[in-house]
């Protein structure tokens, strides 16, 4: 059986190789760094069985243009790139399908983010 760490590692590897040009973090952004744009990966619980499924959240953060004004063009571009890299990915041990997408404001960081949720299937 696999853990949700395998799902996050798989998504991280695909995005890191995709040439997005922004930092990608697993679970949380380190407090010592404040890049303008970055991605944070997280998961929901994973089930057990021959075919395991896990939801992976890809949160794409972009610095606001001004206080409370989202950089929608940058968010749309990065979201499209992530979806292109991850939607309908198939390997010998994993598959990925986009499930949902929405925008949120992160007032403390003075940014907005695009939450893209993928259903990642891991084959034992």
Structure report:
- The structure is a single chain.
- With 124 residues, this protein is an alpha+beta fold.
- The chain has a single domain, classed as 2-Layer Sandwich (STM4215-like).
- It contains two helices and six strands.
- The chain has helices spanning 4-17, 72-86; strands at 24-26, 37-46, 51-63, 89-90, 94-106, 111-123.
- It has a six-stranded mixed sheet with strand order 1-2-3-6-5-4.
- β2 (37-46) and β3 (51-63) form a beta hairpin.
- The chain starts with a helix and ends with a strand.
Distance between the termini: 7 Å
Mean pLDDT: 93
Give the beta-strand count.
6
The share of residues in extended strands comes to 35-45%
The figure for the number of domains is 1
Largest sheet, order of strands side by side?
1-2-3-6-5-4
- Reading the helices and strands in chain order gives HEEEHEEE
The amount of helix comes to 10-25%
* Annotated CATH homologous superfamily: Phage tail protein-like
List keywords for this structure.
single chain, 124 residues, alpha+beta, STM4215-like, 6-stranded mixed sheet, 2 helices, 6 strands
